[in-house]
Amino acid sequence: MQRIKCRERENWRSLADEYGFKFHTMYGEPYWCEDAYYQFTLRQIEDDIEDPSAELQQMCLAAVERVVNDEVLLSRFRIPEDYWDFVNDSWLRGDKSLYSRFDLAYTGKGPAKLLENNADTPTSLYETGFWQWLWLEDKINANQWNENVDQFNLLQEKLIDQFRDMRKFQEDIVLHFSCCKDTEEDRGTVQYLEDCASEAGIKTKFVYIEDIGLGEGGFFTDLDDEVIEWAFKLYPWEFMLREEFSLFLEEADVNWIEPAWKSILSNKALLPLLWEMFPGHKNLLPAYFDDDERVNSLEHYVKKPIFAREGANVSIVQNGQVIHHSEGPYGEEGFIVQAYSPLAIFDGDKHALIGSWIVDDEPAGISVREDSNLITQDLSRYLPHIILG
Q1: What would the pLDDT profile of 306-349 be if each residue is shown by its tens digit?
Q2: β-pairing, 99-105 with 350-359?
Q3: Over 340-363, what HEC string results?
Q4: Helices marked H in the chain — which ranges?
Q5: Of the chain's two ends, which shows fewer C-beta atoms within 10 Å, N or C?
Q6: CB contact at 8 A, 344 and 352
Q7: What does the radius of gyration of the chain's CA atoms come to, in whole angstroms?
């Protein structure tokens, strides 16, 4: 695993405008960066990232099976009691998932370590499935590399295939796509997924979360008063289950993407449960709920809220001292503690996080984010990658 500096494509910003990549720069800071890239060997990808990701996915599914049948764990995972049956029924029906992303600490040597599972609303999808692949093709077409250079990136292909599979169970039902207003990155992610669904032959329609209404009979409706029967929502289940409209979730009978059982996997409480179920697994880190006395056995650890996103409200503790902390709105629901596994560091201060994407329970590609801070957050830079050797 190497970080290699390179020349940017001269026209990439105008090309981004042409393709609708509007969030390559956010708040005046670069998000997409192509003045460098990360290089992996095929062995690193296959043995250290792809195969372990497939195994981790099966371990996570086993954890869901355990949680939905255990009231103590449902409470530990902060699933509201009124929705235990709602979540369990989603699992028992086999409601289909579209995608997830494991965040991994990996240095290029030794096993990758699972930091968390972004199983409900992961972003950086467009830049992974399409934009970094376009970057690679442009480099090859400009004769900067030969065709032996590759990328671990089946994401777009697998997303379209999964949408095709989902379509079989929905006949000609319209698939509504939704996210919150005033979130350009989220809107770009949803538009990309909508394009993938259209490619799979699905009729699509967009509505903002804030514009979803409640129609007669307790059904959710869009601005045209069309009943929503099938919907992708880039909106977390932990928010949805606490909204006023959640009282109508069962009655509305929407086939949600992601399904309600994903509320278990997108939850940091998953980490201590996995460690309990698969103790000592090479791709896991010791993790406990923060009220567990075994926390005292960890000298260097990370404290994370059970519900948190984009690295918010995370503390890194060494020998009892907080060496780094990120602010944010989370933490009321409680915390878990996970042994600290440092990210790969390049050029002195660039901490690289690997995102391993899962579609239809199979590995589908990787993304690389880097930051000068120890904690990867929403504005951390995105760099492309290649496979060589």
Answers
A1: 987 776 788 889 888 888 787 777 778 889 999 999 999 999 89
A2: antiparallel
A3: CCCCEEECCCEEEEEEEEEECCEE
A4: 12-19, 42-43, 51-67, 71-76, 84-93, 125-126, 132-141, 155-167, 184-199, 237-240, 249-252, 262-265, 270-277
A5: C
A6: yes
A7: 21
